[in-house]
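Quick one, tokens below:
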């Protein structure tokens, strides 16, 4: 196994979360909220058997988004070996991020539109430890709604490891991907290249069995997919299919 930059720890090299994520890419993060709540443990066990390594939590507060979903106790309560990828769609995240980090987030994504002092949120996250392993660190993501100009990410490029383009208007799963997302992705990749930093790109929302090949061809490092995997029928087959389809882009 490739060793990380974390330094020796009880004789092992600790791999940083960001290095682990880079090693996994291109890969998929699967939204847990579309899983069958009455069979959640079984659903997660099935997912863990597919090769998927990231679990996506869509946190919505009923203010930033019309829908309200889950909070820190839910993120903490899910026992899984998958990386916890927490997508915060909430107002005033500055005062809330610490609770999600304490709940076990490995990756934490905050919307640029959700906070007046978004730069301060990423600075704050930069000084927090990953509670799963203090040596591993957190991955910080900035997310943008489809109607938000890309220029807002430029001032935070030094403070994030991932940029997520939400390809639907956030609020619920099962919507159709907005095609302008592809052009936005290419513009984001240019911004990242110009920054000289190795920032991952991610598309979230509207990713289906039918369009994952087309999305993959545009070259995001990650995609988030919910209802295409947890469709109430075949999560194992779906998870394997989506992972394989996304990775066979080259
Ligand atoms: C949207 C969320 C997405 C979405 C994904 O508000 O950020 O993660 O629920 O669900 P699907 O894959 O069904 O579009
Ligand atoms: Zn999401």
């Amino acid at each position: 196994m490739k060793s990380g930059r974390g330094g020796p720890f009880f004789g092992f090299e600790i791999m940083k979360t960001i290095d682990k994520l880079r090693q996994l890419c291109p890969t998929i993060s699967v939204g847990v909220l579309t899983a069958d709540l009455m069979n959640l443990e079984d659903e997660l066990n099935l997912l863990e058997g597919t090769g998927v390594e990231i679990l996506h939590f869509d946190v919505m507060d009923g203010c930033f988004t019309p829908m309200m979903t889950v909070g820190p106790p839910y993120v903490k309560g899910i026992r899984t070996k998958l990386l916890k990828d927490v997508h915060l769609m909430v107002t005033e995240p500055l005062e809330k991020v610490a609770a999600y980090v304490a709940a076990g987030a490995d990756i934490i994504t905050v919307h640029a539109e959700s906070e007046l002092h978004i730069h301060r949120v990423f600075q704050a996250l930069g000084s927090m430890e990953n509670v799963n392993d203090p040596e591993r660190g957190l991955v910080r993501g900035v997310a943008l709604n489809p109607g938000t100009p890309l220029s807002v990410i430029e001032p935070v490029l030094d403070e994030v490891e991932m940029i997520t383009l939400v390809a639907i208007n956030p609020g619920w799963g099962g919507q159709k991907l907005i095609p302008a997302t592809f052009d936005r992705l290419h513009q984001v990749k240019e911004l990242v290249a110009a920054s000289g930093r190795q920032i991952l790109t991610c598309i979230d929302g509207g990713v289906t069995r039918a369009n994952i090949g087309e999305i993959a061809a545009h070259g995001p490092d990650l995609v988030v997919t919910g209802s295409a995997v947890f469709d109430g029928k075949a999560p194992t087959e779906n998870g394997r299919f989506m992972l394989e389809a996304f990775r066979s882009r080259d």
